[in-house]
Design a protein that fits this description.
Strand content: under 5%
Number of strands: 0
Largest sheet: none
Shape: elongated
Radius of gyration: 21 Å
Number of helices: 5
Helix content: over 70%
Protein backbone atom coordinates (compact mmCIF):
# COMPACT_ATOMS: atom_id res chain seq x y z
CA UNK A 1 0.00 0.00 0.00
CA UNK A 2 1.35 3.38 -0.93
CA UNK A 3 1.81 5.65 2.05
CA UNK A 4 0.79 8.79 0.16
CA UNK A 5 -2.42 7.18 -1.08
CA UNK A 6 -3.29 5.98 2.41
CA UNK A 7 -2.67 9.50 3.77
CA UNK A 8 -4.82 11.09 1.02
CA UNK A 9 -7.70 8.73 1.67
CA UNK A 10 -7.46 9.35 5.41
CA UNK A 11 -7.62 13.10 4.78
CA UNK A 12 -10.81 12.68 2.70
CA UNK A 13 -12.51 10.35 5.18
CA UNK A 14 -15.18 12.02 7.30
CA UNK A 15 -13.88 12.58 10.79
CA UNK A 16 -15.98 12.15 13.90
CA UNK A 17 -16.26 14.94 16.41
CA UNK A 18 -13.09 15.04 18.57
CA UNK A 19 -15.12 15.16 21.79
CA UNK A 20 -17.41 12.25 20.87
CA UNK A 21 -17.44 9.55 23.50
CA UNK A 22 -16.64 5.98 22.54
CA UNK A 23 -18.90 3.31 23.95
CA UNK A 24 -16.16 0.74 24.31
CA UNK A 25 -14.27 -1.78 22.23
CA UNK A 26 -17.26 -2.78 20.09
CA UNK A 27 -17.61 0.79 18.81
CA UNK A 28 -13.90 0.96 17.95
CA UNK A 29 -14.13 -2.39 16.11
CA UNK A 30 -17.14 -1.16 14.13
CA UNK A 31 -15.31 2.03 13.14
CA UNK A 32 -12.29 0.01 12.00
CA UNK A 33 -14.54 -2.32 9.99
CA UNK A 34 -16.25 0.61 8.28
CA UNK A 35 -12.89 2.20 7.49
CA UNK A 36 -11.59 -0.98 5.83
CA UNK A 37 -14.76 -1.34 3.75
CA UNK A 38 -14.68 2.31 2.66
CA UNK A 39 -11.02 2.15 1.64
CA UNK A 40 -10.56 2.43 -2.14
CA UNK A 41 -8.69 -0.81 -2.84
CA UNK A 42 -8.92 -0.44 -6.64
CA UNK A 43 -7.21 2.93 -6.55
CA UNK A 44 -4.48 1.58 -4.29
CA UNK A 45 -3.93 -1.46 -6.54
CA UNK A 46 -3.67 0.71 -9.65
CA UNK A 47 -1.20 3.10 -8.02
CA UNK A 48 0.92 0.28 -6.62
CA UNK A 49 1.00 -1.65 -9.88
CA UNK A 50 1.87 1.48 -11.85
CA UNK A 51 4.73 2.26 -9.48
CA UNK A 52 6.06 -1.29 -9.40
CA UNK A 53 5.59 -2.48 -12.96
CA UNK A 54 5.83 0.67 -15.08
CA UNK A 55 7.33 3.66 -13.28
CA UNK A 56 10.29 2.02 -11.52
CA UNK A 57 11.62 -0.03 -14.48
CA UNK A 58 11.00 2.80 -16.94
CA UNK A 59 12.86 5.36 -14.88
CA UNK A 60 15.68 2.94 -14.04
CA UNK A 61 16.26 2.48 -17.78
CA UNK A 62 15.79 6.22 -18.38
CA UNK A 63 18.42 7.25 -15.85
CA UNK A 64 20.84 4.61 -17.14
CA UNK A 65 20.41 6.14 -20.61
CA UNK A 66 20.90 9.64 -19.22
CA UNK A 67 24.10 8.57 -17.45
CA UNK A 68 25.48 7.40 -20.80
CA UNK A 69 24.30 10.50 -22.71
CA UNK A 70 25.18 13.08 -20.03
CA UNK A 71 28.16 11.67 -18.16
CA UNK A 72 29.43 13.07 -14.88
CA UNK A 73 28.17 13.93 -11.44
CA UNK A 74 28.76 17.66 -11.46
CA UNK A 75 26.05 20.18 -10.69
CA UNK A 76 25.80 21.06 -14.37
CA UNK A 77 25.29 17.41 -15.36
CA UNK A 78 22.72 16.89 -12.60
CA UNK A 79 20.78 19.98 -13.69
CA UNK A 80 20.83 18.81 -17.32
CA UNK A 81 19.55 15.37 -16.30
CA UNK A 82 16.78 16.89 -14.19
CA UNK A 83 15.73 19.30 -16.93
CA UNK A 84 15.76 16.58 -19.58
CA UNK A 85 13.71 14.27 -17.36
CA UNK A 86 11.13 16.97 -16.67
CA UNK A 87 10.79 17.95 -20.30
CA UNK A 88 10.79 14.47 -21.85
CA UNK A 89 9.44 11.99 -19.31
CA UNK A 90 7.12 13.66 -16.82
CA UNK A 91 4.18 14.44 -19.09
CA UNK A 92 3.93 11.01 -20.79
CA UNK A 93 4.36 9.09 -17.53
CA UNK A 94 1.77 11.16 -15.65
CA UNK A 95 -0.65 11.06 -18.59
CA UNK A 96 -0.26 7.27 -18.76
CA UNK A 97 -1.04 6.95 -15.07
CA UNK A 98 -4.12 9.14 -15.30
CA UNK A 99 -5.42 7.19 -18.30
CA UNK A 100 -4.85 3.91 -16.48
CA UNK A 101 -6.57 5.19 -13.32
CA UNK A 102 -9.68 6.47 -15.09
Amino acid sequence: MMLGDLFAQKMRAPQSHPHARSSGVANVDEEARREVHSFDWRRTLIGSSWSGFVFAPLFAAWFALLDRRIPGSTLKAACMKALTTNVVMVLPVNAGFLVLES
